[in-house]
Amino acid sequence: MALITASDVSLGYDNHLIVKKLNFSINAGDYLYIVGENGSGKSTLMKTLLGLLPPISGSISFGDGIKAGDIGYLPQQTIIQKDFPASVREIVISGCQGRCGLRPFYNREEKKLADDNMKRMDIVDLKNRPYRELSGGQQQRVLLARALCATQKLLLLDEPVAGLDPNVSAQMYELIEKLNQEGITVIMISHDISAAIRYASHILHIGEKIYFGTRGDYLESEAGRDFLLRNKSEGDKNYA
Ligand SMILES: Nc1ncnc2c1ncn2[C@@H]1O[C@H](COP(=O)(O)OP(=O)(O)OP(=O)(O)O)[C@@H](O)[C@H]1O
Ligand SMILES: [Mg+2]
User: Fold this and answer.
1) How buried is residue 102: exposed, middle or buried, by Cβ count under 10 Å (0-12/13-18/19+)?
2) How far from 125 is each of 89, 92, 129, CA to CA, in Å?
3) Domain spans of the chain?
4) Which secondary structure element, helix H or strand E, spans residue 156, and what is its range?
5) What is the distance, to the nearest Å, from the Cα of residue 166 to the centroid of all Cα atoms in its chain?
6) Which of 9, 133, 184, 198 satisfies CB 3.0 to 4.6 Å to 22 for a cystine?
7) What is the pTM of this model?
């Protein structure tokens, strides 16, 4: 059974329709890129997959023992979030909140999980630093460590490289690819079509034209060809 199956899912806020009739399925180990123009509904789709927002119609089903609480989520960054006054360790361990239930403190196992994920993301040296004093790339690694505290199965990443310079973006892509190779299913929103073409197993394009399929099929599709043309400088890098 697929990890996530979306059947005729329409999305939006207060019955204001943003995306109509999405159909896709994701299997364990897949690496799905969600692409589309600004405002096309990518973040809204992620919030709907997380159960933070009900679909307007259609259904989303989860297989393989996945529940909304065992999904690791890296939200799209806003200026307010970037200024958050907590320490790195506090932010990372807050990814264990879904495991705590009503218990008002973190147990030894959760503290170890936070330490292990800080090691995995190479941010142990930063653990007592205030999050808001870190560079953009360091902040994204903190948020990835936090998301990993919530899951060993499925990560939802909303523009994890936005605003990062090309070197730091490349490091972030390598880290995420490694997690995918370790068996974690990844769903990532990105405007970086060249990265999508390089790393994705599947692409979901949302907008006026909707497309879901393998990366290879997307490049041959009308939606894929149009999107590549509009992002030509990015696309050119792949064919160079
Ligand atoms: N909380 C909200 N209430 C009402 N409308 C919203 C809300 N959040 C987003 N929208 C609207 O829903 C539409 C889709 O927004 P969404 O954030 O999903 O787009 P996106 O594809 O993630 O865009 P971007 O690439 O800029 O991040 C937009 O028209 C937006 O104004
Ligand atoms: Mg968004």
Assistant:
1) exposed
2) 10, 13, 9
3) 1-66+194-240
4) strand 154-158
5) 19
6) 9
7) 0.92
CA-nearest residue for atom 27, ligand 1, is 38
Tell the residue nearest (CA) to atom 11 of ligand 1: 39
CA–centroid distance, 179 to ligand 2, in Å, is 23
In sequence order, the 6+-apart residues with CB closer than 8 A to the CB of 30 are 3, 185, 186, 201, 202
Angle at CA 160, nearest 5°, toward 55 and 196?
Answer: 85
Give the full edge-to-edge strand order of the sheet including 185-189.
71-74, 154-158, 185-189, 31-35, 202-205, 211-214
**C-alpha distances out from residue 80 to 74, 127, 132, 161, 168, Å:** 15, 21, 10, 17, 22
What's phi and psi for 176, nearest 5 deg?
-70, -40
Q: Is the minimum distance from the CB of 76 to ligand 1 under 6 angstroms?
A: yes
Residue with CA nearest ligand 1 atom 13:
39
pLDDT tens, 91-144?
999 999 888 888 889 999 999 999 999 999 999 999 999 999 999 999 999 999
> Ligand 2 centre and the CA of 73: distance in Å?
13
**Token pair 């149009």 in the structure block, residue:** 226
